[in-house]
Known about the structure:
Family: Belongs to the EXO70 family.
Strand content: under 5%
Keywords: Exocytosis, Protein transport, Transport
CATH architecture of the largest domain: Up-down Bundle
Order of helices and strands: HHHHHHHHHHHHHHHHHHHHHHH
Structural class: mainly alpha
Pfam family, one: Exo70_C
GO biological process, one term: exocytosis
GO cellular component, one term: exocyst
Mean pLDDT: 82
Number of helices: 23
Number of strands: 0
Largest sheet: none
Amino acid sequence: MGDCEPTLVNHEMEHHIVAAAQHLIMALRASTNLNIDDMRSFLSNVEARLSTKSTPIESRGGPLMDMEEQLRQCEIVIMRWEANQSLIWDSSSEETSEYMNAAAEIQKLVENLESVSPIRNGKQKELLLRAQNILQRAMSRLTEELRHILVWYKEYHEPRYMSCRSFVEDVVYDESFASIEDEAAELTSHAEDGGSASAERRVSLIRPDMVPALKSIAQVMFSSKYDQEFCQAYVSIRKEALHEYLVILKMEQLTIEDTLRMDWDKMSNEIKKWAWAMRIIVRVYLASEKHLCNEVLGEFGSVNSETFVEITKASMLLFLNFGEAIIMSPRQPEKLFRVLDMYEVLAELCNYVDALYSEYAGASFRIEFHDLLASVGDYARGTFAEFRNRVALDRSQKPFGGGGIHPLTKYAMNYIKVLSAYRGPLNLLLCDREVKCLEPCLGIDNEEECSADSSCALAVHLRSLVSVLESNLIEKSKLFKDTSIQHIFLMNNIHYMVQKIKDSDLRRYFGDEWIRKHIGKYQQHATSYLRATWSSALSLLKDGGNQALSFCKPTFRERCKAFCLAFEEVYKCQTRWIIRDPQLRSDMQIATTQKVIHAYRTFLGVNLGSIGEKYIKYTADDMENYILDLFEGSPKSLPHPWKK
Length: 644
């Protein structure tokens, strides 16, 4: 069938050649110079042979008759399926091949008939119109078949979990934080490589054995100049399939206004879903969609990339617009971890997006994606600064009851602990931010480890944050009028900071020397507490006693009484103070016992005769037991067991 076009042209040329040859023969016969019999015989033979060629084309079969017969045969195949409600690709492979071959034959007939211009032959024009009509019917049917294959042979895949810090709990600072047990406030996060990307994974979006069918339909429709109809049908079905997948991933069609109106809990959950879905869509689904486009449309140049962009445009804009909405919302410290999740996802997917939209048609998506990455990074930096300001500027109007661990300390340390899990992105975002830190690298013996951990941008900022927190706590301690509880308050909070750092990955950023230094700090506050609380009372038990009473013999009895009154006051006051850490509380009770009970026992042992047993209100053993009630956070009063 491929020879139809030159055949039609050659016959038209032959008609002109025959006419010219006949004219030449007549001229030669009229010439008187032809006296050679052989020449005349030759010309006679030529005339005889040419005469057989001079019969009009229409009077014998010719190429148009052949084309008409071919068209008739193809029409039978095409029209047979017009009345058939079943689908071609649900029939046998022989019937499918027959239909596709017929469609291809008609397309070639149309090309051959259109190639002669202008069309002078009425029969030729009639055949062309007829062929075009049949071709249109075939293309309409193939479009239906295309939709059928894309819908009914679609592969379904349950989205697999892809690692992401989406279950890091929010750290929100309010007064209720004070009542949360430390274990409940602990925040879990993935290790640094928890969100790392594995290799791109593709899945089959269409049953693999049907991909050749899509490709063959594309080839016939494109060669028949029905490429636009093919692409419209293909794009509409594949867009719908992608939308269905987003529904499975529970991605809502949110506008920027919808996002900005959300409360934080709702927004936080939406960011978690966004980060999870974004990874799956780009690395799995879009990679698979791109692969399918390449298989079906790869040989058609830019149409391939343009089709892919059209399929994915709405979904990508959904993700990008959500990101834009988030960075338009106010910067609040509790948002930082969610924003860092977003930044990690965007940074991880940059190369994937660049590859997916590498052609000209996808340039706008590449640009928007990189712009969003930069904007989210700026937003994260600003939110980090907002957290630092909150720690620095938090001001209390009254002392925190009982001298326990302040809510700001819990909030800040738990927050900092989670920050350490984001070493990768934070080092990138904070590396150009200067911060004053007096301890650049402490307690790391290995020089390489010092450089990698204690000297990184994140480590410098974390140490600075803890320094800011410590300064704020010193200011808060001044709200207590009693010097003793000031020391208890600072001892509690510094001890809490040390434990958080010592027992977690934060240790690598602070170093052992920082830990030793701050252990020394809270131990110094413990010593200062003992001195501030008991120095005056214990002075009553020393030789010479209180000079105001030392001039008369009954002073031993008076000194013992005064000491017991001082002990009662300490007991009444300090049983409501709190040291929540059991080991630290036990250490303080032991230190108090060693300092106080030893002095009291010695005093009684030396002066019992002078005092009189009946005037001893509390024995040393009594006081030792009462000291165990201190720092329990439950105010108590001593009984008054006078000895008889």
